Amino acid sequence: MPKKPSSSEALVKARAYCARQERCQQEVRDKLYSWGEHKTQVEAIIAQLISERFLNEARFAEHFAVSKFRQKGWGRRKIEQAMKQKQVSVPCIALGLKAIEDDEYVIALNKAVAKRWEKVKEVNAFIKRQKVMRYFIGRGYAVEQVEKALEDV
Q1: Neighbour tally for 107: CB within 10 Å
Q2: Contacts of 52 (CB under 8 A, 6+ apart)
Q3: Sign of CA dihedral 14, 17, 22, 23
């Protein structure tokens, strides 16, 4: 069984953990608990990381939203749900979603819908349309936006 790190060692490890990539407070809190830290120590370490700017939830939300949109093709609703699951505050979620440009969002959706339309092998146009709609609603896009994109196909 590995020994529990001291409070100063835990702070150093937490700094390194936050330096590798943007993290939300809950991810850091979970990691500190997994190292065996107690609640008072965890909150003190998180406060220290915030004051040293290793941890910034607004910065995390912006990075998370833009990354999931550009790399995985997620829509705003799915990104919002994922951030809620990570217990990011509502104002930070709104800030993160604002980081996604509306024009870029619509262009990416139109491109993805056209690509998916060609990929779906279905003779019946109604069923094909339903399959494409279901796919993009599952990816977190609004029904109205997907319908508008399908009109252009």
Answers
A1: 11
A2: 15
A3: negative
- Rounded Cα distance between 78 and 137, Å, is 9
Map tokens 């949109």 to a residue.
69
Reported as a single tens digit per residue, the pLDDT across 103-138 is: 999 999 999 999 999 999 999 999 999 999 999 999
* Residue 1 placed within a domain: no
CB 49 within 8 A of CB 16: no
Q: Considering the domain boundaries, does residue 40 fall inside one? A: yes
pLDDT, tens digit, for every residue of 74-109?
999 999 999 999 999 999 999 999 999 999 999 999
Confirm if 88 and 56 have CB atoms less than 8 A apart: no
Q: Which residue segment(s) compose the domain that 118 sits in?
A: 102-151
CB under 8 A, 24+ apart: contacts of 18-23: 18/49, 18/54, 18/55, 19/54, 22/56, 22/59, 22/60, 22/63, 22/64, 23/55, 23/60
Domain boundary, last residue among 51, 67, 85: 51
- Whole-model pTM: value is 0.90
Do 116 and 86 lie in one domain? The reply is no
